[in-house]
Prior knowledge:
It is built from 14 helices and 31 strands. With 525 residues, it is an alpha+beta fold. Strands 18-17-23-14-15-22-19-20 form an 8-stranded antiparallel sheet. It has an 8-stranded antiparallel sheet with strand order 27-24-26-25-29-30-28-31. Strand 4, helix 5 (118-129) and strand 5 (134-139) form a beta-alpha-beta unit. The two termini are 41 Å apart.
Amino acid sequence: MSIAQEIEKRRTFGIISHPDAGKTTLTEKLLLFGGAIQKAGAVKSNKIDMHARSDWMEIEKQRGISVATSVMAFEYEGSKINLLDTPGHQDFAEDTYRTLTAVDSVIMVVDCVKGVEIQTEKLMEVCRMRSTPVISFINKLDREGKDPYDLLDEIENKLNIDVHPLSWPIGMGKTFQGVYSLYDKSLRLFKGGQQLHEEATRFSDINSPELEKIIGERYAAQLREDVEMIQDLYGDLPVEDYLTGKVAPVFFGSAINNFGVKELLDTFLKISPNPKPRKLDEVAIEPTHKEFSGFIFKIHANMDPKHRNRIAFLRICSGKFERGSNYYHTRQDKKFRISQATAFMAQDKETIDEAYPGDIIGLYDTGNFKIGDTLTEGMKGVYRGIPAFSPEIFREVINKDAMKTKQLEKGLTQLMDEGVAQLFNFELGSRKAVGVVGQLQFEVIQYRLKHEYGASVEFAPMQLYKACWISAKDPKKLNEFISSKQRHIARDKDDKLVFMAESKAWLQMVQDNFPDIEFHFTSEF
Length: 525
């Protein structure tokens, strides 16, 4: 099969949502259709002890939340699907932002009871920055929720994107009857508690008098009225507007009951984009370009606690990856032989010999890779767009066991390379500050340092407002600034200079006093 045919088969997408909207449950059901798992795990349940396949870290199982992006690949109806399930919790937003750089489209899950929530708004901003195509799945229709029309208005108003319903619910909660597919003009009836992968009753003609016998006169009349109104309002889906991120097709369903998921998946395969060109520096590289290239968007240490290994997640952008080949590491300016590469099914891995644009592969790493690194067959340049954001909460690292200093250093270095948080080493003294987006990250770092590296730490509060990366056109001015503010100068894990501002007002004053110094709130400048 040619590279072009392999690309045609591939779909790489992420699932995003606010916590508890049902994202991980939807992931499980999609895997079920792909035959990747035989039985879907419940994310939160006392009775079910089989945890969701994509939540594999111990801390995720305890809390019932996703704290790290999971990568899963499966085949469905002749397509190769690469699915990335992202953390919904806002404290792990950076991992999600980075993951969104590696996908070609997104499925956004909205809870029909709560509607559009704040974290979804933030994630949509990231999608809009890149014009990423978005499909929305309105979930939990087996519960009493908001009116479907109100939900569509809410998505349009809060997320600043036009919507286009491709399915429509009949009833909701206790009266939920099923979903009518506006895309293929068929009715799918709901049977409660339908946990397994099986076909539900189908009914193709909503104008047939048989409809009354199945769902009753009131619901039949309401459905016909709704369908007519939606068709008048929306017409046919403008696929090009979806592909450019202007319109979000909307589906309704209940992931926990495996209802409406197959319609979503089938339509997704018909309309969603294949791998697209990406910019290597300023040059757009086509996926069909004969030379291999790709970038690292995530690093995870200790996926297998028995083997203290690090895996770098690489998104392939062009050409064909072949195991055993030598590839050029553009940051280090040298070639590496990639002797082992894996494909993922959550934490299960299998060795692969070749992979194509759109695929996410894992490379065993001994410390050569960082997030944002580019590998090519020889081309120079970097795939851009994976910045580090200025953290919002800072704590000083206090080592609780001086005998384990080496383990602590190694653990902090590896966790920071993963992008779990950001580490700042002050130029004066040996103080270390960890900066995070959300409080829960400190718990994860503390837990992982203890259980994976045997290092005990405490995090002491610090009076810090922002970490600003600094630069200047005149090196002399930059040196003068560093000398005058030495107590507040630190370096990040990549050795970039950072000014640690104690308050908003003070930062403003420093900016006014040093007009030649540029202060940056992301590391990519």
